Amino acid sequence: MTRYALDKLLRQVILDDQACRAFLDERPGVLHTYDLSDAECEALEALDYPRLYVLGAHPFLLNGFLMRTQTGDRASALAASHASRCDARSRQCGGDGAVPARTAERFFGSLSRGRTLRLN
User: Fold this and answer.
1) N or C: which terminal CB in the chain sees fewer CB atoms within 10 Å?
2) Residue 108 pLDDT more than 60?
3) Helix 74-85 and helix 101-108: axis angle, to 10°?
């Protein structure tokens, strides 16, 4: 049931300006009104978008949620989130905390560069 609650919260933040302001201002209070797992609450608290994706958030809702809650470039938001979780000894990050271009492309698709998505 928590995946449904997660998607419901994301949808609410996307569509309702008041819900978006409440989420940004009082995140813990808003999260306790939904039936979310501890992992989902932690990811929402930290605005950890890649982790929300792994936890099963719908990609289209996650994209809209990202646009409502993050200012600036979405790829930069991914990079900041990834760098905060990246260990300096991690082979995947190469020790510098940078997001591999392929990871950003997979997560955001061509939308991160402002182009339309092509379906092959």
Assistant:
1) C
2) no
3) 120
CB 53 within 8 A of CB 82: no
Query: CATH 1.10.700.10 residue ranges in the chain?
Result: 1-70
Burial class from Cβ neighbours inside 10 Å (0-12, 13-18, 19+) for residue 89 reads exposed
Backbone angles phi, psi at 68, to 5 degrees: -80, -30
What is the CB-side half-sphere exposure of residue 67 using CA atoms within 13 A? 12
Query: pLDDT digit string (tens) for 83-102?
Result: 655 544 354 455 444 545 55
Reduced to 3 states (helix: H, G, I; strand: E, B; else coil), residue 46 is coil
At 23-65, the pLDDT tens digits run 999 998 899 999 999 999 999 998 888 899 999 999 999 989 9
Q: Which two tokens stand for residue 32?
A: 């306790």
